[in-house]
C-alpha cells in the first residue's frame, strides 16, 4: 500500500483506545490504528503547501502556514497562544467574523493529568479532541466561560499555581501521576481561584480517561526531523497525542509537519 498527500492534524475519536485517522487529502483518509505493529515508511517529497491558502512555501511557519498567512491569518493571532489577549468579545481581531465563530463562543478551562497537572483552555466544541491531542491521561472541567478572553484570564490566574505546559517526553514515556485524586485537586484549584470567577466554576466532575493505541511505550525518545532526514521507516509501536511512536523510541509529531507532502507505504 502506498498513499500520498499533505499532512494535517490527525482526526481522533474517543474510543478505547483512541481511533486515529490521517487525512492526506479529501480522497485519502488513512486508518492509522490498522498500521500499528506494522513496518511503515514516511517519505517527505520536498513540497510544502500552506494549510491556509494552499500555496507552495519553502518554509513552514506555525505548523503549516506560509509566511503571509502566519502573519495575517486569524489562526495565528496572539490570542491563540495567549487567550487572555483575545478581543473577539469586543467585535475585534484579525478577522472579526472568524473570531465570532471561533472565539466568542463558550470555552472550557480544564485540568489535564499526565505525569503531572496542567491547566488549559479550549473551545467547548473541541472537547475531548484537545485533551487527546495533548496526550492527556485524564481530564476534567474547571470552568465554563462565555468566550475565549474570560477563559484566558482564568488560565492566567491558575498558572500561578499549576503549569500550563505538557512535558512531551514524559507524555510519550507514559509517565503518569497515578496517585493523584483528580476531584480533590479540582476542588483545591477552585478554592484558590480568584473569587471574581466563581460564576464560571464547572460543576461537571466527570473525569474523562483516555487510552491510546500503543503496543509498548519507549523508555527513551528521539524526535525525527523530516527536514533533515526526509525518510522515516520502522515498526509503528503506537500513537499518543499527535505523535507516532516507532520501535526504538523514535517519535514524530505529525502536527509539526502540517502541509508537508508525504508518501506513506506499509
Features of the shown structure:
alpha+beta, 18% helix, 266 residues, 7 helices, four-stranded antiparallel sheet
Structural features, described:
The chain is an alpha+beta fold. It has two domains: 2-65 and 213-265, no CATH class; 107-209, no CATH class. 18% of the residues lie in helices and 29% in strands. The protein has seven helices and 14 strands. The protein has helices spanning 67-72, 78-81, 96-102, 129-133, 148-158, 168-172, 182-192, and strands at residues 2-6, 11-13, 19-23, 29-31, 39-48, 107-113, 117-123, 138-145, 208-209, 222-223, 231-240, 243-246, 250-253, 260-265. The protein has a seven-stranded mixed β-sheet, with no helix packed on it. A four-stranded antiparallel β-sheet has the order 7-6-8-9. Strands 2-3-4 form a three-stranded antiparallel β-sheet. The longest helix is centred in the middle third of the chain and has 11 residues, at 148-158. The chain is globular.
Spatial sequence of strands, sheet with the most strands: 1-14-5-11-12-13-10
Provide the low-confidence segments as ranges.
none
Radius of gyration, whole Å: 19 Å
SSE pattern: EEEEEHHHEEHEHHHEEEEEE
Approximately how much beta-strand content do the residues carry? 25-35%
- Counted up, domains total 2
Query: Which of globular, elongated, flat, extended, rod-shaped describes the shape?
Result: globular
- The secondary-structure class comes to alpha+beta
Largest sheet: 7 strands, mixed
Number of helices: 7
Distance between the termini: 6 Å
- Overall pLDDT level: 96
Amino acid at each position: 500500500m502506498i498513499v500520498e498527500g499533505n499532512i494535517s492534524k490527525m482526526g481522533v475519536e474517543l474510543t478505547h483506545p483512541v481511533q486515529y485517522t490521517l487525512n492526506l487529502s479529501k480522497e485519502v483518509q488513512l486508518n492509522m490504528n490498522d498500521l500499528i505493529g506494522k513496518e511503515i515508511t514516511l517519505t517527505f517529497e520536498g513540497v510544502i503547501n500552506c494549510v491556509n491558502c494552499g500555496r507552495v512555501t519553502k518554509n513552514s511557519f506555525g505548523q503549516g502556514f506560509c509566511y503571509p498567512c502566519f502573519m495575517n491569518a486569524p489562526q495565528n493571532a496572539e490570542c491563540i497562544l495567549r487567550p487572555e489577549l483575545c478581543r473577539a468579545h469586543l467585535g475585534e481581531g484579525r478577522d472579526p467574523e472568524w473570531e465570532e465563530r471561533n472565539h466568542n463562543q463558550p470555552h472550557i478551562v480544564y485540568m489535564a493529568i499526565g505525569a503531572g497537572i496542567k491547566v488549559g483552555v479550549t473551545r467547548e466544541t473541541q472537547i475531548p479532541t484537545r485533551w487527546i491531542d495533548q496526550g492527556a491521561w485524564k481530564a476534567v472541567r474547571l470552568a465554563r466561560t462565555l468566550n475565549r478572553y474570560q477563559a484566558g484570564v482564568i488560565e492566567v490566574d491558575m498558572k500561578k499555581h499549576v503549569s500550563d505546559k505538557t512535558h512531551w517526553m514524559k507524555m510519550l514515556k507514559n509517565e503518569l501521576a497515578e496517585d493523584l485524586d483528580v476531584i480533590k485537586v479540582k476542588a483545591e484549584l477552585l478554592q484558590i481561584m480568584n473569587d471574581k470567577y466563581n460564576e464560571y466554576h464547572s460543576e461537571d466532575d466527570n473525569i474523562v480517561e483516555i487510552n491510546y493505541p500503543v503496543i509498548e511505550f519507549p523508555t527513551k525518545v528521539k524526535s525525527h526531523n523530516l527536514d533533515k532526514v526526509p525518510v522515516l521507516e520502522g515498526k509503528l509501536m503506537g500513537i499518543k497525542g499527535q505523535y507516532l511512536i516507532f520501535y526504538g523510541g523514535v517519535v514524530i509529531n505529525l502536527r509539526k509537519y502540517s502541509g508537508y507532502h508525504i508518501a506513506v507505504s506499509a
